[in-house]
Amino acid sequence: MVFPDGYLESAYQHVRAAGGLCIADEVQPGFGRTGTHYWGFETQGVVPDVVTMAKGIGNGVPLAAVVTTPEIAQVLASRIHFNTFGGNPVVCAQGRAVLQVIDREGLQENSLQVGNHLRKGFHELAAKHNVIGDVRGKGLMLGIELVKDRTTKEPAKEECARVFETAKDLGLLVGKGGLFGNTLRIKPPMCITHADADFMLEALDVAFGGL
Fold it and tell me: What is the architecture of the domain spanning 107-209?
């Protein structure tokens, strides 16, 4: 779900007015996946107090990180805490290499270009298949919401499950989620090519056509 413009700015103001801290979970949208920005929170023009990151930073190796302000870090340093993916020299070297590859191979720009290509293709599929109620997202973090009726927006949970399974049989792995389990979650590797994207569109077209 893409936040409306200004949403986080307002939310952060309320949180801080109540004495709270603002935490940005960048495990999935971080490291350039949104295409236009390196971090998801940047699309909203805010600066969080804590940023959490994982998955993308290690490209498959168990690595996670937390970035915070000096004040919060000082408090953490005076307490006992631990994490599952504790840092070590080997995985940190791998994480550094991942960051270098993201920059060297222009994967943020690729996320923007291929993501726009996919979103355009999803809208074309929506014009063809009435079960598609909404297409949304940024870069290579996209969602296709399925509905039984575009007016009532009744969730098409069973249909989503069938598309999910058919796509898998065709060689395409996508996620599914949402509060009602009716949204296909499209988060491919950031190195995906236009040819890969075209295959995805063809496979989904077949899957939707089988409903």
Answer: Alpha-Beta Complex (3.90)
pTM equals 0.91
Determine how many CB atoms are found less than 10 A away from the CB of residue 128.
10
Name the residue among 139, 135, 121, 120 with its Cα closest to residue 192. 139
List 54's β-bridge partners, or say none.
64
Looking at the DSSP assignment, which residues form a beta bridge with residue 185?
Answer: 143, 175
The dihedral over CA atoms of 154, 6, 113, 136, expressed in degrees to the nearest 10, equals 0
Q: What is the crossing angle of helices 194-209 and 157-169, to 10°?
A: 130
Helices 107-128, 89-104: axis angle to 10 degrees equals 70
What CATH number labels 7-104?
Answer: 3.40.640.10
Does the pLDDT value for residue 94 go beyond 80? yes
